[in-house]
Amino acid sequence: MFKKTIKFLGLRISLILLVVILMALAIVLGLMLGYGGLGGKNPGDIFRPSIWHDFFSKLSSKS
């Protein structure tokens, strides 16, 4: 009984971990596709902090 429980929990934890990794990968690829493909810029630039600073400053501006 104990071995079945451990095996079941291990399977559930590995499935949750797989889903989290796939979601993170989808977010990163979506950001790169949106910035590079649709925006016409270098997709690798999405990881620069200055891009995010500009983005959040435009969101928080009161214009």
From TrEMBL:
InterPro entries: RNApol_su_b/EpuA. It comes from the Bacteria. GO terms for cellular component: DNA-directed RNA polymerase complex. Keywords: DNA-directed RNA polymerase, Membrane, Transcription, Transmembrane, Transmembrane helix. The chain crosses the membrane at residues 12-35. It holds the Pfam family EpuA. This is DNA-directed RNA polymerase subunit beta. It comes from Pseudolactococcus paracarnosus.
